[in-house]
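User: Sequence for N-acetyltransferase below. Tokens please.
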Amino acid sequence: MRLLRAGEGAAAVAIAADAGIPGFGEGDDLRAALDRSGGRIELPDLPGMTGWCFGALISGRLVGVLYACTPVDFVLSHRGEQRAWLGRSVVEIEIVAVEAGCRVGGAGTALLGHAERFLGERGVELFVAKGDAGDMPVMRWYRHRGYRVADAGQSCLLETPAGATSIDAGPAHDRRWRLAIKAPGKSVVRGVRGLRLEPNPSA
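Assistant: Structure tokens for N-acetyltransferase:
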């Protein structure tokens, strides 16, 4: 497991496209950014916001990719200290894709664990994934890896040093999407209005 290297964009995008991840084509912006920068992508005109792409390799061949990124729209909807904290503390996992022949070997799980450790060492405190509310296999996959899954349309309340805010999977009236949340060192608990983070009692 490692960050992608410059020039590996085509292989990464091909794996994502073969796995059915929508929006990938020959002229894809992510491919160009990966080819140019490797697995750490500075987002243009957005200081402090970053995309990260990790690869799983078998015998030196790329067989899986995970792309995580600052949730730009969410972060930009805040101001000042809260925006700065969210920008460095929250990432959204946008792509996890593994070649069909390697999916039963745990490459996706290993990629996710590697990304969580790597980004956690760099200050990330909250991992967010958003999925189709009807895609139970994906939601179950995250749940089995320590994520708490919100009900369709629900959000997660976050306490930041600059006050409380909520992250959601989309507009409140759109119940097609669900959040999966993991906050190492904290407990993600279910309340009446959705998820919230609490200090881990064992910490």
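The chain has a mean pLDDT of 90.
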